[in-house]
Automatic annotation (TrEMBL):
Gene3D superfamilies with a match to the protein in the record: Winged helix-like DNA-binding domain superfamily/Winged helix DNA-binding domain
Entry-linked InterPro entries: PCI_dom, PSMD12-CSN4-like_N, PSMD12/CSN4, RPN5_C, WH-like_DNA-bd_sf, WH_DNA-bd_sf
Family listed: Belongs to the proteasome subunit p55 family.
Organism: Trichinella nativa
Keywords, sorted A to Z: Proteasome
Cellular component aspect of the GO annotation: cytoplasm; nucleus; proteasome regulatory particle, lid subcomplex
A Pfam match: RPN5_C
Domain (PCI): residue spans on this chain: 305-385
Name assigned to this protein: 26S proteasome non-ATPase regulatory subunit 12
Length: 500
């Protein structure tokens, strides 16, 4: 009984079919006949017989026989150096209906193995491009396509087309070659002391799908942080550490992320307290020993150089912070802030002035004063004074306008309140007058008697003639009227007695 791999075949569209017929014997006969025809210089007839057998084995779903025929077709073309026909056959075999993955991969592997036998550089270049085009997007021939791409890159490099060789490699998505590329770039940038580039390469390695081991990914992330901090201050370096502080991948290494935060905050970093007291225990400046880093990177000398570089970066950060918060400061005070002696502080500050990190700083050695803000010219100071004076006068004018506005509003409100108070006093007097008048009218028996003098007398003696209980009754009635208005005419009450 045939094993399962001989009776089952997988088509290019993913279908798995059962072999309908075993055509291995017919294939052997056709191979012998094709060899005889080729020896008789009848290449076209031999190729026609092989193509016919390829079609029959493919329709019979005979995976092994179909692979044998495809391999024989390309081998014959290579041996006879019929490269134009070979390109046509490669394209035709890759686009056949019911294409079998196993047979197609065997054909591509044979082409890759026989490629060094091609002596003509132009023909070799065209064959590689044809194979790369037909294998694009096919996972089962990914390795072969990567090897072809490597061959093409080497050919371009030999011709002096370095940019073309790099472009071809960058287009390739194969993870092993991607890792090899970043490994070489890390060594190159370490040699050139381009630490920002090293950091970016390590970060890209952490995103490579080849590494499923979490410990390896953590190692790459740690190295990315280390070299980003070791890089001199620049726009690119600042954007790199800012991205790290917001990237969730670095939450796996919290201590290293805290170190990044130290260089983002606009605060002085203490070398002894913030760095040596915390991060020296992590061995952060010795790149972890892995199979993916050269011995140069792991050497003790490299580690010590990293520590010295880190101290320079801390000093650079502290100098930038001092220049931001001070316009003039004594040199010995700067040395105290950065935990250095005066000589080292002066030397390091001079380097920062020369390389453009703090370009406007000036050191006065006799007085020991460092100025971070350049002295303005007389014309600039006069212009600043004029602008400031205009600004002050505009603000004074605005404040004066607001004060006058408040006084007018206060005056209007105060006069309105006085009118309301006078209305309440008149209402109180009228109430007393009417009440006392009604009492006096009840006491008089003679209706013809002149009452004009009585009204005058009442008006003058009302407050004296009322008893204390009557005054309290009138006051309570007034309070009741003001506190409990008539609810049936609420709108009238509101307009009649406005509240302030």
């Amino acid at each position: 009984m045939n094993p399962p791999e001989q009776i089952l075949g997988e088509f290019g569209d993913g279908r798995v079919v059962k072999m309908l017929a075993d055509m291995s014997k017919e294939v052997e006969q056709v191979k012998l006949e094709a060899e005889r025809l080729i020896s008789d210089e009848m290449f076209a007839a031999a190729l026609e017989k092989l193509c016919d057998m390829e079609r029959r084995t493919r329709l019979s779903a005979d995976m092994n026989s179909n692979a044998t025929v495809q391999v024989n077709i390309v081998s014959v073309c290579f041996s006879e150096k019929q490269y134009d026909i070979l390109k046509e056959q490669i394209i035709a075999l890759s686009k056949k209906r019911s294409l079998m993955k196993y047979a197609n991969s065997k054909m591509v592997q044979t082409c890759v193995e026989l490629m060094p036998s091609v002596s003509c550089k132009k023909a070799k270049f065209e064959l590689i491009e044809t194979l790369r085009k037909t294998t694009e997007g096919k996972i089962y021939v990914e390795v072969e396509r990567a090897r072809l791409t490597h061959m093409l890159s080497q050919m371009k490099e030999e011709d002096g087309d370095i940019e073309g060789a790099v472009k071809v490699l960058l287009e390739l998505q194969h993870q092993d070659l991607k890792f090899k590329y970043y490994k070489l770039m890390i060594l190159l940038d370490l040699y050139n002391k381009n630490y920002v580039g090293v950091s970016n390469h390590y970060y890209n390695l952490s995103e490579t799908e080849t590494f499923h081991d979490k410990s390896k990914i953590v190692t790459f992330l740690k190295n990315a942080v280390v070299y980003a901090i070791l890089a001199p201050y620049s726009t690119e370096q600042w954007s790199t550490i800012s991205r790290m502080s917001e990237d969730g991948n670095f939450d796996q290494i919290p201590k290293y992320k805290e170190l990044v935060q130290l260089f983002i905050k606009e605060e002085i970093i203490s070398w002894k307290k913030d760095i040596l007291g915390v991060y020296d225990k992590l061995k952060a400046w010795s790149v972890s020993s892995t199979d993916y880093v050269e011995e140069y990177v792991e050497s003790q000398e490299h580690t010590l150089a990293n520590l010295e570089q880190l101290q320079c970066r801390v000093g650079e950060h502290n100098m930038r912070i001092v220049s931001k918060y001070y316009s003039r400061i004594y040199l010995n005070r700067i040395a105290e802030l950065v935990d250095w002696n005066v000589e080292k502080t002066e030397e390091f500050l001079c380097k920062l002035i020369v390389n453009g990190t703090i370009p406007l700083a000036k050191i006065c050695r006799p007085s020991g004063v460092v100025t971070f803000v350049p002295k303005k010219k007389s014309q600039e100071e006069l212009d600043d004074w004029a602008v400031g004076t205009v600004d002050v006068m505009e603000k004074i004018n605005k404040v004066t306008h607001l004060i006058l506005k408040e006084r007018m509003m206060y005056k209007n409100v105060h006069s309105f309140c006085e009118e309301e108070d006078s209305d309440e006093e008149d209402w109180f007097t009228d109430t007393l007058f009417k009440r006392q008048s009604s009492e006096y009218e009840d006491d008089f028996d003679d209706p013809d008697e002149n009452t004009e003098d009585m009204y005058v007398e009442v008006d003058e003696t009302t407050s004296e003639s009322l008893s204390e209980s009557e005054l309290k009754a009138i006051e309570s009635e007034m309070e009741k009227k003001s506190v409990e208005p008539d609810k049936t005419s609420e709108v009238e009450v509101v307009f009649d007695r406005p509240f302030f």
